[in-house]
Amino acid sequence: MTKTMSDSNNFELIYFNSRGFAEPIRILLHFAGHIGRTLEENLKVDMFVDEMYDLIIAYDEVVHEQDPKVKEEKKIKAYSKDGYFRKFLSRLENMIETGPFILGDRMTWGDVVIMSFLELKQTPGYGRKDLLDDFPKLLTQYESVRGDARVKTWLETRPQTAK
Fold it and tell me: pTM score, two decimals?
């Protein structure tokens, strides 16, 4: 945490010094031009990615569960119709207004981050293949990012890091 600001209404705004996962890709894609054109567009992309990180934090209890039986029960509950996974995906779905990307017709670094996350969450043994069945906007976004010629080339030629 770096700063805390308060106003006369006792509203407290806390800034966290969070440069972890997305910062390197943010920098690279900034130089490649994959950012918003305005502050509002950049904020929308940040909000989208922050929502995804909230989901990662919520899912951590499943990932780090040591007991295989309890882990499977938590995983089933997380992915259920009333589980938090669907709630988060619903919020992401509602944030895509015109599609196929977060900002409409332009792919941003946030779209790449989300595609990567959704790719992992559809991997057998780690997630569910039917994950996006009820989220057509997210499915279109995911497929659109994967369909970008540069991303497609990378996915086809990248080094294998896991089996």
Answer: 0.73
